[in-house]
Amino acid sequence: MTERFFSNPVLTKGADPWIIKHTDGTYYMTVTLGDRIALWHSKTMTGLGHDHPTTVWSPPAAGSYSHHLWAPELHWIGDRWYIYYTANDGGGDDTRRVCVLQLTGDDPMTGEWSFKGAINTEFPGLDGTVLPHQGNLYFFYSGYGHFPDYGSAIYAARMSDPWTLTGPNVLISAPTAPWEKQGGMAINEGPVFLRRNGRIFLVFSASATWADDYCLGMTTILDSEDLLDPKAWSKNNGPVFAKNPESGVYAPGHNSFTVSPDGSEDWLVYHAYSYSETEQARSEGTPRSTRMQKFGWKENGMPDFGAPLATGEPIPLPSGE
Predict the structure, then answer these.
(1) How many of the other CB atoms lie within 10 Å of CB of 130?
(2) Which pLDDT tens digit goes with each residue over 255-301?
(3) Do residues 321 and 1 make contact, with C-beta atoms less than 8 angstroms apart?
(4) What is the spatial distance between Cα 225 and Cα 3, in angstroms, rounded to a whole number?
């Protein structure tokens, strides 16, 4: 049997990609579109790039959360669908919040989405995500502040329901190292999670998204520990996934994780540029593209993401396609 291939990017214009595989085997994808939220769906991972998106939410023309809709994430919590996304009134960082939509019905493509409100975070911020753990629901987001340089850091809090925080917002990871402060801004953003080998891996994006050195960092905790104890987290002292000039891929970051159709492979989904920030194509606004590649695990139980694969490089289809 002839092995089949695909190549990156799977979506030529797709920043902040989020792909989730539902319990029925359907894949859903969403990316930052700015003025609306849309979903792609397919029975295969690579099919997502060929599907036409369906707009599922458009905000009012004006209001506190009508502008700059960024980084949507689709989550199945309990027996309901939710979308978490960043929005503001068109102003600066201090007006930016993470908002929540709840679905009425079972089909996120056709059901009615209702606005539940902005999450009551202690700090203005972006890139909210949720993590069910030991009977509780936790919210992680990127909050603005000085650490001591101005930028964003990862905070966590317990949730009383999927749109309400209860208790303190705890600082989990701040951008203090040089590799987290490239491009003129100190940034930890886009938290996402992996679970494996008795550990929880929090993977985040570091440095300014417009810089070549935008990358993925990681901090880890044993799944038996208190997620709101900052001392229980162990942060890698450098990137775990970074630019690859040899393959012509720069600023890889803001990722999500999924698995192959047969569940045997782990896949990293991320956005990146095909050009260096010093090249004219970047200055003319060449978009970030959605890419994905398989990753493995080291003998010590840690993930091994490797390096970004080149644009157009043949990649074997995910197992089960």
Answers:
(1) 20
(2) 999 999 999 999 999 999 998 887 656 556 678 999 999 999 999 99
(3) no
(4) 43
**Identity of the residue numbered 233:** W
Query: Of 285, 256, 257, 261, which is closest to residue 273 (Cα–Cα)?
Result: 285
Of 161, 171, 158, nearest to 204 by C-alpha is 171
Strand order in 97-104's β-sheet? 67-77, 80-88, 97-104, 112-118
Q: Are 204 and 242 in contact (CB under 8 A)?
A: no
Contacts of 26 (CB under 8 A, 6+ apart): 41, 42, 43
Find, among 22, 29, 71, 87, the residue nearest to 204 by Cα.
71
Give the CA radius of gyration of the chain.
18
Residue 46, helix vs strand vs coil: helix
Task: Write out the DSSP string of 271-299.
Answer: EEESS-TTSHHHHTTPPPEEEEEEEEE-T
0.70 exceeded by pTM: yes
The residues carrying an active-site annotation are 16, 189
CA–CA dist 189, 270 (Å, integer): 13
Here the tokens at position 80 are 């309901």
Region for residue 245 given its phi and psi (left: phi exceeds 0; alpha: psi -120 to 50; beta: otherwise) = alpha
Q: Which residues contact residue 67 at a Cβ distance below 8 angstroms, ignoring those fewer than 6 apart?
A: 35, 59, 87, 88, 89, 90
Q: Are 132 and 200 in contact (CB under 8 A)?
A: no
